[in-house]
Design a protein that fits this description.
Layout lengths: L2 H7 L4 E4 L5 E2 L15 E4 L36 H7 L8 E6 L5 H14 L4 E5 L4 H10 L7 E5 L3 H11 L3 E5 L16 H18 L2 E6 L12 H5 L2 E6 L6 E9 L7 E7 L2 E4 L18 E8 L2 E13 L7 E4 L3 H14 L7 E7 L11 H13 L7 E3 L2 E2 L5 E2 L4 H10 L4 E5 L10 E4 L2 E6 L2 H7 L6
Parallel strand pairs: 4-8, 4-9, 5-6, 5-7, 7-8, 15-16, 17-20, 20-22
Antiparallel strand pairs: 1-2, 1-3, 9-10, 10-11, 11-12, 13-14, 14-16, 18-19, 21-22
Length: 466
Protein backbone atom coordinates (compact mmCIF):
# COMPACT_ATOMS: atom_id res chain seq x y z
CA UNK A 1 0.00 0.00 0.00
CA UNK A 2 1.34 3.40 -0.91
CA UNK A 3 2.05 6.11 1.66
CA UNK A 4 -0.66 8.29 0.12
CA UNK A 5 -3.31 5.60 0.45
CA UNK A 6 -2.44 4.85 4.05
CA UNK A 7 -2.53 8.54 4.93
CA UNK A 8 -5.97 9.03 3.34
CA UNK A 9 -7.40 5.98 5.11
CA UNK A 10 -6.28 7.26 8.51
CA UNK A 11 -9.11 9.07 10.36
CA UNK A 12 -8.54 12.79 10.66
CA UNK A 13 -8.36 14.42 14.07
CA UNK A 14 -11.02 16.93 15.01
CA UNK A 15 -10.69 20.01 17.19
CA UNK A 16 -13.77 21.05 19.19
CA UNK A 17 -14.61 24.11 21.30
CA UNK A 18 -15.33 23.14 24.89
CA UNK A 19 -17.76 26.06 25.28
CA UNK A 20 -20.11 25.80 22.29
CA UNK A 21 -19.15 22.57 20.48
CA UNK A 22 -17.87 24.22 17.27
CA UNK A 23 -15.60 21.88 15.29
CA UNK A 24 -12.67 22.54 12.98
CA UNK A 25 -10.13 20.37 11.20
CA UNK A 26 -7.12 22.16 12.66
CA UNK A 27 -6.32 23.87 15.92
CA UNK A 28 -7.04 27.59 16.27
CA UNK A 29 -6.59 29.84 19.25
CA UNK A 30 -10.03 31.40 19.06
CA UNK A 31 -13.37 29.69 18.51
CA UNK A 32 -15.03 30.71 15.27
CA UNK A 33 -18.53 30.41 16.76
CA UNK A 34 -18.50 31.85 20.30
CA UNK A 35 -15.21 33.81 19.90
CA UNK A 36 -13.78 32.38 23.13
CA UNK A 37 -9.99 32.13 23.45
CA UNK A 38 -8.16 28.93 24.35
CA UNK A 39 -11.21 26.66 24.31
CA UNK A 40 -10.47 24.64 21.15
CA UNK A 41 -9.09 21.18 22.01
CA UNK A 42 -8.31 18.08 19.99
CA UNK A 43 -10.70 15.16 20.36
CA UNK A 44 -10.29 11.56 19.35
CA UNK A 45 -11.43 10.85 15.77
CA UNK A 46 -14.58 8.85 15.31
CA UNK A 47 -14.27 5.26 14.17
CA UNK A 48 -14.87 4.80 10.45
CA UNK A 49 -16.13 1.92 8.41
CA UNK A 50 -19.00 0.96 10.76
CA UNK A 51 -22.27 -0.16 9.21
CA UNK A 52 -25.71 0.12 10.79
CA UNK A 53 -28.15 -2.66 10.02
CA UNK A 54 -31.92 -2.71 10.47
CA UNK A 55 -33.10 -3.68 13.94
CA UNK A 56 -36.30 -4.11 15.92
CA UNK A 57 -38.67 -1.12 16.13
CA UNK A 58 -40.16 0.21 19.34
CA UNK A 59 -43.66 0.53 17.84
CA UNK A 60 -45.01 -0.04 14.31
CA UNK A 61 -45.60 2.91 12.01
CA UNK A 62 -49.25 3.94 11.67
CA UNK A 63 -51.18 6.32 9.44
CA UNK A 64 -50.94 9.89 10.67
CA UNK A 65 -54.71 10.12 10.98
CA UNK A 66 -54.68 7.22 13.45
CA UNK A 67 -52.22 8.84 15.87
CA UNK A 68 -53.82 9.70 19.20
CA UNK A 69 -53.52 13.30 20.38
CA UNK A 70 -55.18 13.06 23.79
CA UNK A 71 -51.88 12.05 25.40
CA UNK A 72 -50.29 15.31 24.24
CA UNK A 73 -52.99 17.69 25.41
CA UNK A 74 -52.06 20.93 27.17
CA UNK A 75 -52.12 20.99 30.96
CA UNK A 76 -52.16 24.33 32.76
CA UNK A 77 -49.01 25.22 34.65
CA UNK A 78 -51.01 27.25 37.19
CA UNK A 79 -49.33 30.48 36.00
CA UNK A 80 -51.52 32.21 33.41
CA UNK A 81 -48.78 34.33 31.87
CA UNK A 82 -46.55 31.29 31.34
CA UNK A 83 -49.46 29.40 29.77
CA UNK A 84 -49.92 32.35 27.42
CA UNK A 85 -46.33 32.07 26.20
CA UNK A 86 -46.43 28.28 25.92
CA UNK A 87 -49.60 28.38 23.84
CA UNK A 88 -51.88 26.75 26.41
CA UNK A 89 -49.74 25.14 29.10
CA UNK A 90 -47.42 22.19 29.67
CA UNK A 91 -47.45 19.17 27.35
CA UNK A 92 -46.71 15.65 28.68
CA UNK A 93 -43.42 14.38 27.29
CA UNK A 94 -42.24 17.85 26.30
CA UNK A 95 -38.82 19.24 27.19
CA UNK A 96 -38.54 22.96 28.02
CA UNK A 97 -35.39 25.02 28.45
CA UNK A 98 -35.61 28.23 30.50
CA UNK A 99 -32.57 30.51 30.32
CA UNK A 100 -31.80 33.87 31.88
CA UNK A 101 -29.22 35.93 33.69
CA UNK A 102 -28.28 35.10 37.29
CA UNK A 103 -30.69 36.57 39.83
CA UNK A 104 -33.46 37.33 37.34
CA UNK A 105 -35.86 34.93 39.08
CA UNK A 106 -35.73 31.66 37.12
CA UNK A 107 -35.72 29.43 40.21
CA UNK A 108 -38.50 31.46 41.85
CA UNK A 109 -40.70 31.17 38.77
CA UNK A 110 -40.17 27.42 38.37
CA UNK A 111 -40.75 26.78 42.07
CA UNK A 112 -44.09 28.56 41.65
CA UNK A 113 -44.90 26.41 38.60
CA UNK A 114 -43.91 23.23 40.45
CA UNK A 115 -46.05 24.13 43.46
CA UNK A 116 -49.08 25.06 41.35
CA UNK A 117 -48.78 21.77 39.45
CA UNK A 118 -48.51 19.83 42.70
CA UNK A 119 -51.64 21.53 44.06
CA UNK A 120 -53.56 20.02 41.14
CA UNK A 121 -52.72 16.56 42.54
CA UNK A 122 -50.01 16.07 39.89
CA UNK A 123 -46.87 14.84 41.61
CA UNK A 124 -43.88 17.10 40.93
CA UNK A 125 -40.14 16.62 41.42
CA UNK A 126 -37.85 19.64 41.82
CA UNK A 127 -34.16 18.77 41.44
CA UNK A 128 -31.73 21.43 42.65
CA UNK A 129 -28.12 21.15 41.59
CA UNK A 130 -27.08 24.66 42.68
CA UNK A 131 -28.72 25.00 46.10
CA UNK A 132 -29.18 22.72 49.06
CA UNK A 133 -32.60 21.37 49.95
CA UNK A 134 -32.81 23.68 52.97
CA UNK A 135 -32.14 26.75 50.81
CA UNK A 136 -34.93 25.81 48.42
CA UNK A 137 -37.23 25.15 51.40
CA UNK A 138 -36.57 28.65 52.73
CA UNK A 139 -37.60 30.13 49.38
CA UNK A 140 -40.69 27.94 49.32
CA UNK A 141 -41.64 29.19 52.80
CA UNK A 142 -41.17 32.80 51.74
CA UNK A 143 -43.27 32.40 48.58
CA UNK A 144 -45.93 30.14 50.20
CA UNK A 145 -45.16 27.21 47.93
CA UNK A 146 -45.28 24.34 50.45
CA UNK A 147 -47.58 21.58 49.21
CA UNK A 148 -47.91 17.85 49.80
CA UNK A 149 -47.22 16.55 46.27
CA UNK A 150 -44.10 18.65 45.68
CA UNK A 151 -40.93 16.58 46.15
CA UNK A 152 -37.48 18.13 46.47
CA UNK A 153 -34.06 16.58 45.81
CA UNK A 154 -30.61 18.17 45.84
CA UNK A 155 -28.50 16.12 43.41
CA UNK A 156 -25.72 16.68 40.90
CA UNK A 157 -25.36 13.11 39.61
CA UNK A 158 -27.38 12.05 36.57
CA UNK A 159 -27.89 8.50 37.83
CA UNK A 160 -29.23 9.79 41.14
CA UNK A 161 -31.64 12.13 39.33
CA UNK A 162 -33.01 9.24 37.27
CA UNK A 163 -33.29 7.21 40.45
CA UNK A 164 -35.41 9.92 42.07
CA UNK A 165 -37.66 9.92 39.01
CA UNK A 166 -38.15 6.15 39.36
CA UNK A 167 -38.99 6.51 43.06
CA UNK A 168 -41.29 9.54 42.90
CA UNK A 169 -42.96 8.90 39.51
CA UNK A 170 -43.78 12.57 38.90
CA UNK A 171 -45.69 14.18 36.04
CA UNK A 172 -43.40 17.25 36.07
CA UNK A 173 -39.63 17.33 36.64
CA UNK A 174 -37.71 20.59 37.10
CA UNK A 175 -33.89 20.42 36.90
CA UNK A 176 -32.09 23.52 38.16
CA UNK A 177 -29.77 23.57 36.32
CA UNK A 178 -28.62 21.29 33.50
CA UNK A 179 -25.06 22.67 33.66
CA UNK A 180 -24.61 21.38 37.23
CA UNK A 181 -25.56 17.74 36.55
CA UNK A 182 -22.71 15.28 36.00
CA UNK A 183 -22.92 12.05 33.99
CA UNK A 184 -20.61 9.33 35.29
CA UNK A 185 -18.35 7.74 32.69
CA UNK A 186 -18.48 10.75 30.36
CA UNK A 187 -15.39 12.87 29.81
CA UNK A 188 -15.42 16.54 30.75
CA UNK A 189 -16.48 18.64 33.69
CA UNK A 190 -20.11 19.51 34.53
CA UNK A 191 -21.24 22.27 32.22
CA UNK A 192 -18.89 21.24 29.43
CA UNK A 193 -20.08 20.42 25.94
CA UNK A 194 -19.87 16.62 26.26
CA UNK A 195 -21.45 16.54 29.71
CA UNK A 196 -24.34 18.88 28.83
CA UNK A 197 -25.14 16.92 25.67
CA UNK A 198 -25.17 13.58 27.51
CA UNK A 199 -27.17 14.86 30.49
CA UNK A 200 -29.74 16.63 28.33
CA UNK A 201 -30.12 13.66 25.98
CA UNK A 202 -30.65 11.23 28.88
CA UNK A 203 -33.22 13.45 30.62
CA UNK A 204 -35.12 14.17 27.41
CA UNK A 205 -35.16 10.48 26.52
CA UNK A 206 -36.59 9.73 29.96
CA UNK A 207 -39.28 12.41 29.55
CA UNK A 208 -40.33 11.21 26.08
CA UNK A 209 -40.60 7.54 27.00
CA UNK A 210 -42.53 8.13 30.25
CA UNK A 211 -44.70 11.09 29.23
CA UNK A 212 -43.17 13.40 31.85
CA UNK A 213 -42.94 17.14 31.32
CA UNK A 214 -39.30 18.18 31.75
CA UNK A 215 -38.15 21.73 32.50
CA UNK A 216 -34.42 22.46 32.36
CA UNK A 217 -32.81 25.65 33.64
CA UNK A 218 -29.93 26.88 31.49
CA UNK A 219 -27.16 29.36 32.15
CA UNK A 220 -26.36 32.25 29.80
CA UNK A 221 -23.07 33.73 28.69
CA UNK A 222 -22.01 37.33 29.21
CA UNK A 223 -23.57 38.34 25.87
CA UNK A 224 -26.95 36.84 26.82
CA UNK A 225 -26.86 33.65 24.72
CA UNK A 226 -27.53 30.21 26.20
CA UNK A 227 -24.34 28.61 27.50
CA UNK A 228 -23.26 25.20 26.26
CA UNK A 229 -23.59 23.48 22.90
CA UNK A 230 -26.13 24.78 20.41
CA UNK A 231 -27.42 21.23 20.07
CA UNK A 232 -29.10 21.70 23.46
CA UNK A 233 -31.55 24.15 21.91
CA UNK A 234 -32.26 21.69 19.10
CA UNK A 235 -32.95 18.80 21.48
CA UNK A 236 -35.65 20.53 23.53
CA UNK A 237 -39.15 21.37 22.33
CA UNK A 238 -39.44 24.84 23.84
CA UNK A 239 -36.78 27.49 24.53
CA UNK A 240 -37.83 30.30 26.86
CA UNK A 241 -35.79 33.37 27.77
CA UNK A 242 -36.42 35.07 31.11
CA UNK A 243 -35.26 38.68 31.13
CA UNK A 244 -35.46 41.81 33.23
CA UNK A 245 -33.38 44.63 34.68
CA UNK A 246 -32.10 44.42 38.24
CA UNK A 247 -33.37 47.95 38.87
CA UNK A 248 -36.91 47.02 37.83
CA UNK A 249 -39.41 44.58 39.28
CA UNK A 250 -40.75 43.72 35.84
CA UNK A 251 -39.75 40.37 34.32
CA UNK A 252 -40.65 39.04 30.89
CA UNK A 253 -40.66 35.53 29.45
CA UNK A 254 -40.22 35.23 25.68
CA UNK A 255 -40.46 32.08 23.59
CA UNK A 256 -37.46 31.71 21.28
CA UNK A 257 -38.63 28.29 20.06
CA UNK A 258 -41.96 26.54 20.56
CA UNK A 259 -43.08 23.36 18.83
CA UNK A 260 -46.53 23.56 20.42
CA UNK A 261 -47.49 27.21 20.02
CA UNK A 262 -46.52 30.69 18.82
CA UNK A 263 -43.13 32.29 19.35
CA UNK A 264 -44.35 35.90 19.37
CA UNK A 265 -46.00 35.87 22.79
CA UNK A 266 -44.63 37.56 25.91
CA UNK A 267 -45.47 36.86 29.54
CA UNK A 268 -45.11 39.62 32.15
CA UNK A 269 -44.30 39.08 35.82
CA UNK A 270 -43.53 41.22 38.83
CA UNK A 271 -40.78 40.03 41.17
CA UNK A 272 -41.03 40.98 44.84
CA UNK A 273 -39.83 39.71 48.21
CA UNK A 274 -42.95 37.52 48.45
CA UNK A 275 -42.23 35.79 45.16
CA UNK A 276 -43.22 36.27 41.56
CA UNK A 277 -46.68 37.38 40.45
CA UNK A 278 -48.15 37.28 36.95
CA UNK A 279 -49.08 40.72 35.58
CA UNK A 280 -51.99 40.43 33.16
CA UNK A 281 -52.13 44.20 32.48
CA UNK A 282 -48.57 45.60 32.70
CA UNK A 283 -49.32 48.95 31.02
CA UNK A 284 -49.67 50.74 34.36
CA UNK A 285 -46.02 49.99 35.13
CA UNK A 286 -44.82 52.04 32.14
CA UNK A 287 -47.14 55.08 32.17
CA UNK A 288 -47.16 57.90 34.69
CA UNK A 289 -50.63 59.33 35.29
CA UNK A 290 -50.10 63.10 35.16
CA UNK A 291 -52.90 65.31 36.48
CA UNK A 292 -51.77 68.18 34.27
CA UNK A 293 -49.82 68.70 31.07
CA UNK A 294 -46.06 68.09 31.43
CA UNK A 295 -43.56 69.19 28.74
CA UNK A 296 -41.19 66.55 27.39
CA UNK A 297 -43.51 63.54 27.67
CA UNK A 298 -45.47 61.43 25.21
CA UNK A 299 -47.02 57.95 25.30
CA UNK A 300 -46.11 55.29 22.73
CA UNK A 301 -47.95 52.04 21.97
CA UNK A 302 -45.51 49.21 21.35
CA UNK A 303 -46.12 45.54 20.64
CA UNK A 304 -44.48 42.92 22.81
CA UNK A 305 -45.24 39.81 20.82
CA UNK A 306 -48.97 40.03 20.21
CA UNK A 307 -49.61 42.22 23.25
CA UNK A 308 -49.87 46.03 22.93
CA UNK A 309 -48.13 47.87 25.76
CA UNK A 310 -48.35 51.60 26.42
CA UNK A 311 -45.10 53.17 27.59
CA UNK A 312 -44.30 56.77 28.37
CA UNK A 313 -41.30 58.42 26.74
CA UNK A 314 -39.67 61.32 28.60
CA UNK A 315 -37.13 63.78 27.19
CA UNK A 316 -35.02 66.57 28.67
CA UNK A 317 -33.28 69.10 26.41
CA UNK A 318 -30.96 71.69 28.00
CA UNK A 319 -28.38 74.15 26.57
CA UNK A 320 -24.73 73.23 27.06
CA UNK A 321 -21.45 75.14 26.60
CA UNK A 322 -19.57 71.93 25.79
CA UNK A 323 -18.24 71.37 22.28
CA UNK A 324 -19.76 67.87 22.23
CA UNK A 325 -23.26 67.83 23.69
CA UNK A 326 -24.33 64.74 25.59
CA UNK A 327 -26.75 62.22 24.08
CA UNK A 328 -28.03 59.81 26.73
CA UNK A 329 -30.79 57.23 26.30
CA UNK A 330 -32.32 54.65 28.62
CA UNK A 331 -34.74 52.02 27.36
CA UNK A 332 -34.54 53.42 23.80
CA UNK A 333 -32.42 52.62 20.77
CA UNK A 334 -29.73 55.30 20.77
CA UNK A 335 -29.22 55.17 16.99
CA UNK A 336 -32.93 55.68 16.30
CA UNK A 337 -33.07 58.58 18.76
CA UNK A 338 -30.12 60.17 16.97
CA UNK A 339 -31.87 59.69 13.61
CA UNK A 340 -35.06 61.24 14.99
CA UNK A 341 -33.10 64.25 16.22
CA UNK A 342 -31.56 64.70 12.77
CA UNK A 343 -35.02 64.58 11.12
CA UNK A 344 -36.36 67.13 13.62
CA UNK A 345 -33.47 69.47 12.85
CA UNK A 346 -33.75 69.08 9.07
CA UNK A 347 -37.51 69.06 8.53
CA UNK A 348 -38.94 70.79 11.60
CA UNK A 349 -36.38 73.51 12.35
CA UNK A 350 -35.51 72.27 15.85
CA UNK A 351 -31.91 73.18 16.63
CA UNK A 352 -30.50 70.48 18.89
CA UNK A 353 -26.81 70.63 17.94
CA UNK A 354 -25.95 72.77 20.99
CA UNK A 355 -28.22 70.95 23.42
CA UNK A 356 -27.72 68.12 25.88
CA UNK A 357 -30.44 65.55 25.13
CA UNK A 358 -31.64 62.91 27.59
CA UNK A 359 -34.37 60.46 26.57
CA UNK A 360 -35.72 57.55 28.59
CA UNK A 361 -38.74 55.38 29.25
CA UNK A 362 -40.73 55.00 32.47
CA UNK A 363 -40.63 51.85 34.60
CA UNK A 364 -37.77 50.11 32.80
CA UNK A 365 -39.65 49.57 29.53
CA UNK A 366 -37.59 48.88 26.42
CA UNK A 367 -38.80 50.45 23.19
CA UNK A 368 -36.80 49.24 20.19
CA UNK A 369 -39.72 49.08 17.76
CA UNK A 370 -39.75 51.70 14.96
CA UNK A 371 -43.41 52.43 15.78
CA UNK A 372 -42.15 54.38 18.83
CA UNK A 373 -40.33 56.96 16.68
CA UNK A 374 -43.21 59.43 16.63
CA UNK A 375 -43.60 59.39 20.42
CA UNK A 376 -39.87 60.04 20.82
CA UNK A 377 -40.06 62.94 18.36
CA UNK A 378 -43.05 64.48 20.14
CA UNK A 379 -41.29 64.21 23.51
CA UNK A 380 -38.12 65.84 22.12
CA UNK A 381 -40.05 68.66 20.44
CA UNK A 382 -42.12 69.23 23.58
CA UNK A 383 -39.01 69.45 25.74
CA UNK A 384 -37.28 71.80 23.28
CA UNK A 385 -40.25 74.16 22.98
CA UNK A 386 -41.16 73.91 26.68
CA UNK A 387 -44.73 73.16 25.64
CA UNK A 388 -46.72 70.12 26.64
CA UNK A 389 -48.50 67.86 24.19
CA UNK A 390 -52.27 67.61 24.67
CA UNK A 391 -53.14 65.57 27.75
CA UNK A 392 -54.31 62.05 26.98
CA UNK A 393 -52.48 61.75 23.63
CA UNK A 394 -50.70 58.70 22.16
CA UNK A 395 -48.39 58.87 19.15
CA UNK A 396 -47.84 55.88 16.88
CA UNK A 397 -45.67 55.83 13.77
CA UNK A 398 -42.29 55.17 12.20
CA UNK A 399 -40.32 58.17 10.95
CA UNK A 400 -38.45 58.07 7.64
CA UNK A 401 -35.37 60.10 6.76
CA UNK A 402 -37.48 62.36 4.56
CA UNK A 403 -39.69 63.21 7.54
CA UNK A 404 -42.61 61.05 6.37
CA UNK A 405 -44.58 58.83 8.74
CA UNK A 406 -44.79 55.18 7.76
CA UNK A 407 -47.58 52.81 8.64
CA UNK A 408 -47.07 50.23 11.38
CA UNK A 409 -48.51 46.76 11.82
CA UNK A 410 -51.51 45.90 13.98
CA UNK A 411 -52.63 49.51 14.31
CA UNK A 412 -56.22 48.54 15.18
CA UNK A 413 -55.00 46.49 18.14
CA UNK A 414 -52.83 49.36 19.38
CA UNK A 415 -55.66 51.87 19.12
CA UNK A 416 -58.10 49.58 20.92
CA UNK A 417 -55.67 49.23 23.85
CA UNK A 418 -55.11 53.00 24.07
CA UNK A 419 -58.86 53.65 23.99
CA UNK A 420 -59.45 51.02 26.69
CA UNK A 421 -57.04 52.87 28.99
CA UNK A 422 -58.86 56.18 28.55
CA UNK A 423 -56.73 58.11 26.05
CA UNK A 424 -58.63 60.71 24.07
CA UNK A 425 -56.41 61.44 21.04
CA UNK A 426 -54.18 59.27 18.83
CA UNK A 427 -51.80 60.56 16.15
CA UNK A 428 -51.11 57.93 13.48
CA UNK A 429 -49.39 57.88 10.05
CA UNK A 430 -51.31 58.96 6.99
CA UNK A 431 -53.20 56.41 4.89
CA UNK A 432 -53.57 54.20 7.98
CA UNK A 433 -57.35 54.48 7.86
CA UNK A 434 -59.58 52.19 5.86
CA UNK A 435 -60.97 53.24 2.47
CA UNK A 436 -64.27 54.37 4.01
CA UNK A 437 -62.84 56.36 6.92
CA UNK A 438 -62.04 60.09 6.86
CA UNK A 439 -58.76 61.58 8.05
CA UNK A 440 -60.28 61.86 11.52
CA UNK A 441 -62.31 59.05 13.01
CA UNK A 442 -63.24 57.69 16.44
CA UNK A 443 -62.27 54.39 18.09
CA UNK A 444 -64.20 53.59 21.28
CA UNK A 445 -64.52 57.27 22.14
CA UNK A 446 -60.90 58.17 21.21
CA UNK A 447 -60.35 60.55 18.30
CA UNK A 448 -57.82 59.29 15.76
CA UNK A 449 -56.04 61.70 13.40
CA UNK A 450 -53.70 60.59 10.63
CA UNK A 451 -50.95 62.90 9.40
CA UNK A 452 -48.53 62.44 6.49
CA UNK A 453 -45.28 63.61 8.09
CA UNK A 454 -43.62 64.61 11.35
CA UNK A 455 -44.00 68.35 10.69
CA UNK A 456 -47.77 67.95 10.34
CA UNK A 457 -47.93 65.98 13.58
CA UNK A 458 -46.03 68.65 15.52
CA UNK A 459 -48.08 71.41 13.89
CA UNK A 460 -51.25 69.67 15.00
CA UNK A 461 -50.01 69.63 18.60
CA UNK A 462 -48.61 73.20 18.29
CA UNK A 463 -45.05 72.08 18.97
CA UNK A 464 -43.35 73.55 15.88
CA UNK A 465 -41.03 76.53 16.45
CA UNK A 466 -42.51 79.87 15.43
Amino acid sequence: MSRTASRSSRPRSVHRCTECGWETAKWVGRCGECQAWGTVEEVAPAASGTTTVAGPVSSPAVRIGEVRTDTAAFRSSGVDELDRVLGGGLVPGAALLLAGEPGVGKSTLLLEVAAQTARREARTLYVSGEESASQVRLRADRTANITEELFLAAETDLGAVLGHVDAVRPSLVVVDSVQTINAAGVDGVPGGVTQVKEVAAALIRMAKTRGITLVLVGHVTKDGTIAGPRVLEHLVDVVLHFEGDRDSRLRMVRAMKNRFGPIDEVGCFELSSEGIVAVSDPTGLFVEHHEQQVPGTCVAVALEGRRPLLAEVQALVTPTPAERPRRTTSGLDGSRVAMTMAVLAQHCGLRLHQMDVFASTVGGARLHEPASDLAVAVALASATQHKAAPLGTVAIGEIGLAGELRRVRDLDQRLAEAARLGFRLAIVPGRSRGPRLPERWVVDGMKVVDVPDIASALRLMRLLPQ
